[in-house]
Amino acid sequence: MADVDHAQAELQEIEAAQQDGHGGHPSVKQYIRIGLILAVLTSMEVAAKYANLGSATLIVTLLALAAIKFALVVLYFMHLKFDDRRFARFFLMGLAGATTLFLIVLITFKVFQR
Amino acid sequence: MADVIADQHAPAAKAEEHATTTGLPSTKLAMWIFLASECLLFGALITTYLLYRGASKVGPYPNDVFDIPYTSVSSFVLLASSLTMVLAVAAAQKADLIRMRIWLLVTALLGMTFVGGQVYEFTSFSNEGLKLGTNLFGTTFYVLTGFHGLHVTVGIIMLLTLTSFSQAGRLPDDQGFSVEMVGLYWHFVDIVWIVIFAVVYLIPTGPPGGK
Prior knowledge:
Chain A is mostly helical.
């Protein structure tokens, strides 16, 4: 939990620096901080695997951590947060389309009821 | 705010911006559309894996072959390569070509480490009896992770080509844009692995043979 708070504080610091006019893309130090946050989140994933969590809790935890990592890379490393919003729209169209389509397939075949 | 920042910090794209009707660099737009289409490709492969999860009638099953600590190290390596890639982009945008080439080479090296690890993992699984046609797990696992490994390999070739072109002075003056495009592809390969690592390796599979 403290790690997540720390990660949120780091991200707020990066956003504050951008609003102060310190640059649109994060600085090298900020990239390294984001890299460290990603490493911490990966460690948390592996730790969760070995913790005695219930199956449902484990799945939700792992998917949530993966989603945070995914978002950090797309927003900060791929600069989607700072680039023209039309790039984000195109990418999200593909991502949302794929997610919706394949969720329908998985639900149809009752994968979540196994 | 993001739009203003984007305008201030896209010098690499400026030259192309004026030449397109959208005002966006066409190469970058094409790359994002390509990545969106790749979401469908990997979405299909991950869905197929999930559909047949736990449906194998014979072993080996995931729990028999997976070595989570080993794959975790591979994941850290690929994450580290995303960091070095973004550092290469940052260096290119500052026209620091020496640092840019160093980071590109480090990224390629980390990518090769990842692919090498995957080859070792596949060999090890094969020795334990899990081949492409052994069971549904083998088929869906090898196709999914094999396609990902293929993408990483293509990324490595792109990185090495970019470095050698930059060294030979065959890239346009604005090298930052070319590096950024390869960077987008590389980061995409990383985010696909983020999903594969969680969904395939870490989420527990049901009982062997269970539907």
